[in-house]
Specification:
heterodimer; A: 124 residues; mainly alpha; 86% helix; B: 149 residues; 0% strand
Chain lengths: 124, 149
Amino acid sequence: MTGVWLALAVALAGGVGAACRMMLDGVIKERVRVPYPLGTTVINVTGSLVLGFVTALAGPLGPWAVVLGTGLLGGYTTFSTASYETVRLAQEGRWRAAVANGFGMLVVALLAAALGLWLGALVA
Amino acid sequence: MTSSVNTRPLHLRWSSVGLVIAGGFIGTLVRYLVSIALPEWGGMPWPIFLINVVGAFILGWLLEALARRGPDVGRRRALRLFGGTGVLGGFTTYSTFAVGTDGLFVTGDVWPGIAYAVATVLVGAAASLAGILLGARGARAHGVEEPDS
């Protein structure tokens, strides 16, 4: 799988990842009614964990690492929404929530990605 | 009496899922092509930085412009799901950003890694805010004053 086919597989996986993001975010908003964008945090942290795992297994996975990593997980996680929600919290004067959404999410996602890389290296 | 399809929440409707898949397909494809076309100069993952900052700016503009033009229904909602959740959500990424930053830590570039991560969050927030302000200005120019809700 190379060239155009790889690009199409990556794009399709990204579409599926984006739909998973919308559905999971909707379900979390429905069940956990808190005035905080928890859904995006859960999505970005879980996506970073799994991408760490996939990245550590990039060798054996071959082109599937790109389809899963750049495609599925790239489409599932999002930076633009996270950044938008941070600014919205700041505009509402909720500075601690804004810092948590900006830097708290960053720290937890970095730890999750490191855990994924470590777990993947154990399996590889 | 409404059918079960219409009482289903927005995020579980096939029409929403279809719009987001189509948008996510386009956004992910563009990100993939940009990331293979642009080199990582200076050993830093700048392509992802650029993608995330540009995407944050456009999403801020889109969501603000849509909100100021009226409630989230009909064509506006379809455009938000397709363009916002789909295209821009798929174009930008958090997982590649996180793993790329950890990659800098692993190679011993701890301070460049911290600077890269903090810069992404701060410049991204500034881009989101700039987009929101532009969206508000554009709406005022069209005679729209405040969001309906």
